[in-house]
Write a structure and sequence with these properties.
Rossmann fold, 4 strands, alpha/beta, 4-stranded parallel beta sheet
Length: 144
């Protein structure tokens, strides 16, 4: 007896931030690397920097994620639909982008590790904290 496999389309989540160089990039990479979820992640910024921060890439590599993201503008996705849009800026310190398209919206505030002053080691620790905090807060809000 043959069983029929159900083909499901991954749900789409868009992570928004200001520069799209760090927080939204890490969030995108974490979701896309998680085999336990049926989600495809994307990221964009209201004022993209044009690059992905090297320390963001480094802390992802530390956990086995090879991210090849690029810093993109919100306009890249203006005509696309998403099931969920998550802003990851810290509202107190900056203006988060506003998404005018469809989809459920959620805000999860994360401090910007780029703003951490100190030694190279202290900066790297801030990026690691962000990565680990995002794993704990973002993956659970994405229904399996």
């Amino acid at each position: 007896m043959q069983t029929r496999m159900e083909i499901t389309t991954p749900r789409r989540v868009l992570f928004l931030c200001t520069g799209n160089s760090c927080r939204s990039q890490i969030a995108e990479a974490l979701v896309n690397a998680d085999p336990g979820h049926n989600w495809r992640a994307f990221s964009a910024g209201s004022s993209p920097t044009g690059y992905v921060h090297p320390l963001a890439l480094k802390v992802l590599e530390e956990v086995g994620i090879h991210h090849k993201g690029t810093s993109k503008s919100l306009d890249t996705f203006k005509d696309q639909s998403f099931d969920l849009i998550i802003t990851v800026c810290n509202d107190v310190e900056e203006n988060c982008p506003v998404w005018l398209g469809g989809g459920r919206q959620l805000h999860l505030a994360f401090a910007d590790p780029v703003k951490v002053a100190g030694t190279d080691d202290e900066k790297l620790k801030a990026f690691r904290r962000l990565r680990d905090e995002m794993r704990l807060k973002i993956l659970p809000v994405l229904p399996v």
